[in-house]
What does this fold into?
Amino acid sequence: MFFDLYSQELIEAFDQIGRDDIEKLEEMLNEARENDKHVFILGNGGSAAAASHWVCDMGKGINVEGAKRLKIMAPSDHSSIFSAYGNDNGYDQTMVEQIKNFLEPGDLVISLSVSGNSSNLVEAHKFAKEAGAKTVSIIGDYNGKLKDLSDFTITVKSKNYGVVEDIHIILEHAISQDIKRRIQSVEA
It folds into this structure.
């Protein structure tokens, strides 16, 4: 049955992600929260939907009364300005032009991508690095350009877009739930 094959591929890809890498990503997000830095989650297509999910769970779901909140946004959620930049400046400018309005040194830019080669994510990472932001990518096993443009990369050992996008969400769920758990233990 195809479901069993898919599930096995998902499990195998997830098992190959270093647990130290997951902890490092969580620390980067928590550090941004503690230091009032912005976090920008970038993605196209299914990865844009995952970016929105990250914003929901980390912008609302981790909140604990009295604790600092994470300043997180996904530029793909802003359809009017996204399409204006795409129409007037070119698709490769849809993310970078938006983050130019907010990005400050020390902020965190995370790109979710299967190929790691999306031109709008690549341009955003180039700008972010020049502006002194930290850059992260979570990409499929295509050796995409984002790998070299990121301070830290998690490569999902799969070329199956569904598996890579599922792992984008699995990582977010695990990390956001652990951040909330940690905040609650400190605030208690």
Notes: The mean pLDDT is 97. Residues 64 and 184 are 7 Å apart (CA to CA). The two ends are 48 Å apart (CA to CA).
